[in-house]
Amino acid sequence: MESRHFVYILQTENNTLYCGYTDDVEKRFQAHLEGKGAKYTRANKPVKIVWQKEFETKSEALKEEYRIKHKLTRKQKLELITDR
Q: Which of 32, 54, 63, 66 supports an S-S bond with 37, CB 3.0-4.6 Å?
């Protein structure tokens, strides 16, 4: 079976954004909800997936995750979400 690679953005209950990488968005979201995801989402409870994109390779996905996390401002992240 071909593996899938996704970058996703979650909105938290205090209206912050969290970006991550996974091969299964729904399963990863459940892990975040159960407090088994990232340290950030244990402290900032996620409420919904607001954006996701699939990539052909893990490398491409991880590069995009890095770009979103470290290069984009909150305003740019919100624009990315609304442009889909």
A: 32
- Is 32 exposed, middle or buried, given 0-12, 13-18 or 19+ CB atoms closer than 10 A? buried
- Determine the residue type at 10: L
Q: Domains for the chain: give ranges and CATH numbers.
A: 5-82 (3.40.1440.10)
Name the CA dihedral angle for 44, 31, 35, 38, rounded to a multiple of 10 degrees: -60
* pLDDT tens track for 35-53: 998 999 999 999 999 999 9
Which residues lie closer than 8 Å to 20 by C-beta, 6 or more apart?
A: 7, 8, 10, 28, 37, 38, 65
N-terminal to C-terminal alpha carbon distance within the chain: 28
